[in-house]
Amino acid sequence: DEFEIGEKINVRIEIKNNHSEDLDVDVKVYLYDIDEEQAIEKEKENGVSIDSGKDENLDFDLTIPEDLENNEFAVFVLAEGKDGEILCNEKFVYVDIQRKEHEVVIKDISMNQEPLFPGDIFDLTVEMQNKGSEDEDVYVEIRNSELGILEKSEEFELERYGDHDKETRTFGIQISKNAKDGDYNLEIKIVANETEDSRIETI
User: How far apart are the first and last CA of the chain?
Assistant: First the structure.
């Protein structure tokens, strides 16, 4: 199966008790990095009761971490009884995990939280990241028509994930002199050719 970075892998397991007695088993599921020879994500359920001759279905969700390299991966399943006794064959299934080609995201936004008045200028800082596998030319846009705010940066490059993939930009935003008292929503967007991300911040 094919998955993308950040997705969840749903693992459904059927365990059949072929023993002559009822069993309590601990079930462990791993997302395993074959190249690095280590588990990078793990879920487990302890004390699963299975009557003799019966079977039990279990579901697990393994979240694919954001910082994976382009390695080979597999889902590894193990059922253990008392004192770590292995009660069934280990199951090992290869999975194909790919990073999206185009994905830019806003990581954080910070700004002056002091009370603001008509005509004031405040600083707004946007931290962004390219999580995709391709370099991106992007720009940042900040807008609120009620306050007369429309800021757009020049285009700049965010390199692909793993290179120089983060950037921070600070903007001086001026509020209209005719603005009325109240709370206002600012729309902050980072835009690339084939992807974008946006946040709403209240001032």
Answer: 45
